[in-house]
């Protein structure tokens, strides 16, 4: 955006104002989601007391444990309590008596590192592939990329992971098979990130390449792009200067929408590669009916997804605003 | 089968003989074991992998440790009064010795003279009594110290702790083997994670299930050789085995049979088999109106199962055939009771005599809690079809199983990880009034034999009663125990003197050294 | 795919072109794996629960792909393992698409319903689908496959409605719809007779995408052991069960992986060839 600098501050203020409303709405949606999750976990058979008990505890012991965990209080009260702790950064206590914030303190940054790396790589790759294909509409390169991205996005992460693990680690020994952490709670070497990131990037790139390619195709038929072609501008220039900027809002929305899928993939990928992130925490928390822990993970994931969607909203507003 | 497997598979050897025979072997290759052994070498860091889940992390020694990784860390930092042993099934740890009163109700444990906490203060009887009371006060306290009221735990002088049981119990010290971790008196709940222990290792750091422990030079037990132990938590045995095979860890604790077979061709990896590690019995409800209430039907089921095939297919051969008696690792296990084999003709006859309804389909409920459990159910269902018994395997989600099926189901799989005592199972799962009577069994003859065992001080008489107890269990109980899975650890070739004991004995890493 | 510049884009209708014949042939060729999966049980050499070799036994005579974790024939289990997966994915796709098409058309005529649907989709988008499946399936423990199917439908519908509504909203102000409204026709009539017929391409595309998504979600759930139960043979479950022995008999993992990949790709290409333009667009609308 080549705009005079003095309008920059006003634009920023304007944007912030515009962002406030959607941000509030997104926060409200998150609360609705959390309430739904709390209720859903309540419907599950068994509870955290039973799941953290040992064989042979009597009914009275179990009741004591239930009381200790606060499970004998009404659902809405527990939810209100939990929500009340949020502003102070208190996410409650897990069924095994650990602070949820302590349980998530290391995994959350780890997952963010994994997801952000995968996300950036995905965006870069899909922009590259999408533009490359769009520059050659209908030609073999376009068709190959189209089919390949279609194929990639249909592959579940665990299939990709199983293949990568066999080929790149167990057979060849090139990369570490699992992640081992050091005293700082982070993966001991960066090479441990390669396989999990790849397992996430391959299906995600498939999806996002299609998003980019589709948005560019939409733009190809707009009058100003047609006009640019008629003016005799070189195709790559038309693509980068005219087609791509117009496609940005659609791309931003499409890419932002896929962060939910990215997180779902992370649950499986982290478990398979023993990556210490919130995906592994979630998988085991669901199995253990650990409501505060599940809610904590959903909170974190939902907040991150909300932020990404909000960023996409802003990008859309900014670019659409620039064009009008 | 290679040399190493042949050595470990020797179920005929007593556990003590096994220990003696193998204390200088266990090498991955013959050259390695002959050249590198000898006097233990001091130093080095052992990287251990253990199973655990991030959500189930527990730092409290008296909490519910669902994670092997957490239990491993706790067991190396803190000491229990006693530990599982090789020759007798109870060996001293923090308690140097113990003795009962004449009526077998009052037990006195004397604390090891040299025992000090990591911060240098000596361990007192007050500390131990306080810790045991704290344990007794947890929701699972009654299950962990059965028959001992909190008021009946007290310190006597500086180095003796007295526990009074509600009933005579000749096997009382067994209760103090797994959970009686000792902390300083009045340790606050919030400080438990950093509380000093008395164990062979001190906690350096703990993060998200992973930990680093360093040697405690003042440990009261035998000399510790390792400088440090690094524990890495793994969600799945598969990830753990992969980590070992790619050299990211030195020891994969409890890795399982498939990992062992995968590693069998690797010369740089040793496979350790700890026999009698895991029991996966099929439980048949003995109380009416269960279809298995008739003794003859249960006998028929025990004759239908093809034990050799079960061990071969379900355990990949890494296990031994069992004889429907739980506690196969007990030094007093009744080896002379004839092994039950497959006899389809007799099974058919028994089923016909009992009027068993062959037109129905019976549900066998199982879970995926431990590897091979669901597989054993599937295979048993397949074998039962040979006498016309139709069994449908129903896999329940773990929480549902423990809440809905366990102790009440007609036919389900169970599993037990501590198998070095026949009396333990009798007390816990088979006596009429037992809290965890899985099959709802109520047999006056068996109950009488049990009371005789725990109420008799004379070892000869007790052994006779124990044999009688096992014979009744073999003939009439609600259990079908087809085999015992080996505990399998994988280790890098350089690791020496690994624990040989089954079950939780595997956490005794204080004797390990690196070549 | 340079569409001719159209001043007023007409509601998309399936276009006829020579490429269509090629697409149809292509469709037949890629649906062969799916056919094989459906007919698989008829030609499998062994039963699915009979041990015929050692656990993770290597391929040999009679067991071309070796044994699985109980020594059962991998080939037979792969041949059996797709039927239920394909059937459930199909069911999810059909139900989701139909529901979304109907509600979506009505939503553009009834703004209040429209807003409700929007909010629903906004919340659903924050819940990663996999987590939703875990919760629904665990809340209904005896549900097995039915629980997974129900969860996939419930979680997929809001998003699908949004796609239909987005495609239908230009139509709500089209002349023939306004004419029908002024005639006093009922909402249901207009949705069914005036709007839906003009959304054929969108709905077809949506169906394809939902099917792909359903295969993904159901196999992901299967991998997390939600849905199919042992000893049932299911591709995703096979990958999970046999992963520990991947080095002993790689085929026990590779064969079901290839089957899932093949199915997913086949379905995807099929959708792509049926409605190439709208597929690309549908994924960008949210």
From TrEMBL, chain B:
One of its GO terms (molecular function) is peptide transmembrane transporter activity. GO terms for biological process: peptide transport. Residues 90-434 form the Solute-binding protein family domain. Pfam families: SBP_bac_5. GO terms for cellular component: ATP-binding cassette (ABC) transporter complex; periplasmic space. PROSITE patterns: PROKAR_LIPOPROTEIN. Coiled coil: none annotated. It comes from the Bacteria. Residues 1-20 form the signal peptide. This is ABC transporter substrate-binding protein.
From TrEMBL, chain C:
InterPro entries: BP-dependent_transpt_permease (IPR050366), MetI-like (IPR000515), MetI-like_sf (IPR035906). The keyword Cell membrane applies. Pfam families: BPD_transp_1 (PF00528). It is a multi-pass membrane protein. One of its GO terms (biological process) is transmembrane transport. Keywords: Cell membrane, Membrane, Transmembrane, Transmembrane helix, Transport. GO terms for cellular component: plasma membrane. It comes from the Bacteria. Residues 86-271 form the ABC transmembrane type-1 domain. It is found in: Cell membrane. CDD domains: TM_PBP2. The chain crosses the membrane at residues 23-43, 84-109, 121-141, 147-165, 203-226, 246-271. Its main location: membrane. Gene3D superfamilies: MetI-like. Belongs to the binding-protein-dependent transport system permease family. This is ABC transporter permease. It comes from Actinomadura harenae. The lineage of its organism: Bacteria, Bacillati, Actinomycetota, Actinomycetes, Streptosporangiales.
């Amino acid at each position: 955006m080549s705009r005079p600098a003095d309008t920059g501050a006003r634009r920023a203020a304007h944007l912030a104002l515009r962002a406030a409303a959607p941000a509030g709405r997104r926060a409200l949606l998150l609360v609705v989601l959390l309430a739904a999750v709390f209720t859903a976990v309540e419907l599950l058979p068994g509870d955290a007391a039973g799941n953290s008990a040992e064989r042979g505890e009597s009914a009275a012991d179990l009741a004591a444990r239930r009381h200790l965990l606060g499970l004998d209080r009404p659902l809405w009260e527990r939810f209100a309590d939990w929500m009340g702790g949020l502003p102070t950064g208190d996410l409650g206590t897990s069924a095994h008596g650990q602070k949820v914030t302590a349980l998530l303190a290391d995994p959350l940054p780890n997952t963010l590192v994994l997801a952000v790396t995968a996300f950036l790589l995905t965006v870069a790759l899909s922009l590259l592939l999408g533009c490359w294909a769009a520059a050659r509409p209908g030609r073999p390169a376009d068709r190959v990329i189209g089919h390949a991205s279609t194929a990639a996005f249909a592959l579940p992460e665990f299939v990709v992971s199983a293949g990568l693990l066999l080929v790149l680690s167990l057979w060849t020994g090139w990369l570490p098979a699992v992640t081992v952490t050091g005293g700082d709670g982070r993966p001991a070497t960066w090479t441990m990130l390669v396989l999990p990131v790849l397992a996430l990037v391959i299906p995600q790139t498939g999806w996002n390449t299609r998003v980019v390619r589709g948005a560019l195709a939409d733009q190809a038929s707009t009058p100003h792009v047609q006009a640019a072609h008629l003016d005799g501008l070189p195709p790559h220039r038309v693509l980068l200067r005219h087609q791509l900027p117009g496609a940005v809002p659609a791309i931003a929305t499409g890419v932002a929408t896929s962060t939910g899928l990215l997180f779902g993939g992370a649950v499986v990928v982290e478990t398979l590669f023993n990556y210490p992130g919130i995906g592994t925490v979630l998988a085991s928390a669901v199995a253990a009916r650990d409501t505060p822990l599940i809610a904590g993970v959903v909170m974190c994931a939902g907040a991150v997804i909300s932020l990404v969607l909000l960023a996409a909203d802003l990008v859309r507003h900014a670019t659409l605003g620039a064009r009008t | 089968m290679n040399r190493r497997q042949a050595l470990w598979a020797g179920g005929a050897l007593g556990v003590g003989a096994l220990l003696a025979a193998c204390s200088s072997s266990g090498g991955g290759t013959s050259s390695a074991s002959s050249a590198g052994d000898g006097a233990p070498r001091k130093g080095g860091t052992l990287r251990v992998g253990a199973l655990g889940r991030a959500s189930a992390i527990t730092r409290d020694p008296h909490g519910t440790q669902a994670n092997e990784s957490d239990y491993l860390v706790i067991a190396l930092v803190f000491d229990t009064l006693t530990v599982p042993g090789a020759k007798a099934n109870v060996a001293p740890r923090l308690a140097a010795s113990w003795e009962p009163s004449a009526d077998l109700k009052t037990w006195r444990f004397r604390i090891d003279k040299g025992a000090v906490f990591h911060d240098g203060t000596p361990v007192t009887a007050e500390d131990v009594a306080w810790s045991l009371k704290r344990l007794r006060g947890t929701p699972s306290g009654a299950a962990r110290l059965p028959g001992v009221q909190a008021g009946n735990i007290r310190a006597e002088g500086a180095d003796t702790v007295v526990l009074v049981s509600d009933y005579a119990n000749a096997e009382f010290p067994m209760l103090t083997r797994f959970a009686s971790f000792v902390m300083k008196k009045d340790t606050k709940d919030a400080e438990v994670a950093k509380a000093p222990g008395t164990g062979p290792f001190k906690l350096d750091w703990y993060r998200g299930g992973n930990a680093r422990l360093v040697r405690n030079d003042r440990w009261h037990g035998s000399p510790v050789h390792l400088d440090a132990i690094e524990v890495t938590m793994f969600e799945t045995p598969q990830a753990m085995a992969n980590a070992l095979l790619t050299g990211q860890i030195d020891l994969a604790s409890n890795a399982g049979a498939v990992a062992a077979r995968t590693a069998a061709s690797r010369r740089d990896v040793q496979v350790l088999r700890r026999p009698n590690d895991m029991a996966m019995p099929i439980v048949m409800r003995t109380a009416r109106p269960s279809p298995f209430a008739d003794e003859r039907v249960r006998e028929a089921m025990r004759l239908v199962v093809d034990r050799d095939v079960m061990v071969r297919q379900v355990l990949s051969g890494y296990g031994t055939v069992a004889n429907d008696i739980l506690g196969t690792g007990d030094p007093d296990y009744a080896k002379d009771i004839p092994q039950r084999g497959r006899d389809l003709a007799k099974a058919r006859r028994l089923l016909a005599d009992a009027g068993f309804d062959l037109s129905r389909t019976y549900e066998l409920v199982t879970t995926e809690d431990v590897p091979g459990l669901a597989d054993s159910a599937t295979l048993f269902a397949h074998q039962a079809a040979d006498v016309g018994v139709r069994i449908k395997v129903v896999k329940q989600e773990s929480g549902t199983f423990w809440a809905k099926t366990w102790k009440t189901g007609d036919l389900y799989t169970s599993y037990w990880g501590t198998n070095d005592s026949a009396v333990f199972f009798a007390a816990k799962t088979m006596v009429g009034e037992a809290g965890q009577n899985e099959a709802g069994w109520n047999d006056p003859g068996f109950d009488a034999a049990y009371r005789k065992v725990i109420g008799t001080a004379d070892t000869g008489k007790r052994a006779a009663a124990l044999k009688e107890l096992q014979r009744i269990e073999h003939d009439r109980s609600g259990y079908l125990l087809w085999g015992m899975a080996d505990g399998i650890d994988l280790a890098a070739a350089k690791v020496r003197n690994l624990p040989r004991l089954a079950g939780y004995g595997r956490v005794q890493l204080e004797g390990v050294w690196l070549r | 795919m340079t569409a001719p510049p159209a001043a007023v884009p007409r509601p998309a209708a399936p276009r006829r072109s020579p490429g269509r014949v090629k697409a149809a042939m292509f469709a037949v060729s890629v649906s062969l794996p799916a056919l094989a999966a459906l007919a698989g049980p008829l030609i499998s050499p062994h039963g699915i629960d009979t041990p015929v070799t050692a656990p993770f036994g290597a391929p040999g005579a009679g067991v071309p792909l070796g044994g699985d974790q109980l020594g059962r024939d991998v080939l037979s289990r792969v041949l059996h393992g797709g039927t239920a997966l394909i059937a459930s994915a199909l069911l999810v796709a059909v139900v989701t698409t139909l529901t979304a098409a109907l509600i979506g058309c009505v939503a553009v005529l009834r703004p209040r319903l429209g807003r409700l649907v929007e909010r629903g989709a906004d919340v659903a988008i924050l819940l990663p689908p996999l987590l939703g499946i875990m919760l629904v399936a665990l809340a209904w423990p005896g549900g097995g496959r039915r629980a997974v199917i129900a969860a996939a439908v419930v979680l997929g519908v809001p998003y699908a409605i949004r796609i239909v509504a987005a495609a239908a909203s230009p139509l709500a102000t089209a002349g023939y719809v306004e004419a029908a409204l002024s005639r006093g026709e009922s909402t249901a009539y207009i949705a069914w007779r005036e709007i839906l017929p003009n959304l054929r391409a969108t709905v077809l595309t949506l169906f394809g995408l939902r099917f792909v998504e359903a295969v993904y979600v159901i196999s992901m759930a299967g991998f997390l052991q939600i849905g199919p139960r042992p000893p049932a043979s299911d591709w995703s479950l096979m990958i999970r069960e046999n992963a520990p022995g991947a080095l002993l008999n790689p085929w026990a993992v590779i064969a079901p992986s290839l089957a899932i990949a093949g199915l997913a790709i086949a379905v995807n290409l099929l959708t792509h060839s049926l409605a190439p333009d709208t597929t690309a667009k549908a994924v960008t609308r949210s």
